[in-house]
Amino acid sequence: MLLGIGSASAHVKWFCAYDVAGQPRGLEQVLCAEFEWLVALSVVCLMAGCMMEGTPLGTYLLNALDRVTSRLRTDTPLLVRATLGFFFVSLWNLGGIILTPELKTDLAWIPWLQLGIATTLIWKRTLPLAALGIVFLFGLASWNYGAFHLADYPVFLGIAAYLTLVSFDRTLFALRPLDVVRLSAAVTLMWASVEKWAYPHWTDPLLTAKPEMTMGFSNELFMNAAGVIEFTLAFALIWTPLVRRMSAIILAAVFVSAVIQFGKVDAIGHSGIIVVLLGIAADDARVAVRARTTMLVPAYYAAALACFLALYYAGHAALYGGLPAIPVT
Fold this sequence. Notes:
Blueprint lengths: L1 H8 L17 H4 L2 H21 L2 H13 L1 H5 L1 H19 L2 E2 L1 E5 L5 H11 L6 H19 L1 H4 L4 H14 L8 H22 L5 H6 L9 H18 L4 H22 L1 H19 L8 H5 L1 H25 L8
Antiparallel strand pairs: 1-2
């Protein structure tokens, strides 16, 4: 199961033809009975996780995670810098890429800028320069490919903010550096989930070449399930400590399994978010979990789902088809 969902989580734009301006599936096709059952099951699982968190078993699991991840927690900033250094050196070596494999460029100086960013990651005092370089590359990619396309990757802005906050030992409106990048990772993955529902046919070539990925399910059901699982795990990143730590572990395992299927390109492209997920898994911050927190899961999950669906479809219609073209019927 993990290998199948991991393969679906490989960024399809890196391996298959895509058309961002193309018409997405209508919402009446997305919001089908299968989708609703999958969402309902996901909400039940989230509520079960919250209920367990307030029990002795939940406390035991948190304590066990604290012990197992103690070294990772201590070294999280260093691991993030080292992984990003690997990422940018790899981009310099590949050449012709802005941040992610599908964002191509002919500008000869871009690889050298990426090598320069890798260099500034060596010293804590120069991390703001690395952050500035990441923001510049994100802006350049947005200019060339459009803001809607780059809505797939707000995690890069979260990483830039993380590096800046770590350099100055500051918080952002009481949010720790790890909290900022955690939220950006959650937004990134929830947006990517909607794309799986809106454009499931982009993945058809992969599923045809690797039919074992679907585990015997139809392509449509498999992509619905992959999207719901990814959305739920991403939503969990903004919830309570045990829930978000377990979600980070599962997501990291999913991305690593995708690397096994798709190799070097996927390893380079997802290295940044994998190290962020490991940092979240090691985070020992705790908050009191009340019964009210569990009861609010359905409302907040439904609000997040409705918000991302509305933003994706309304944003796409406004940019590519005009507001009247929102595919609701």
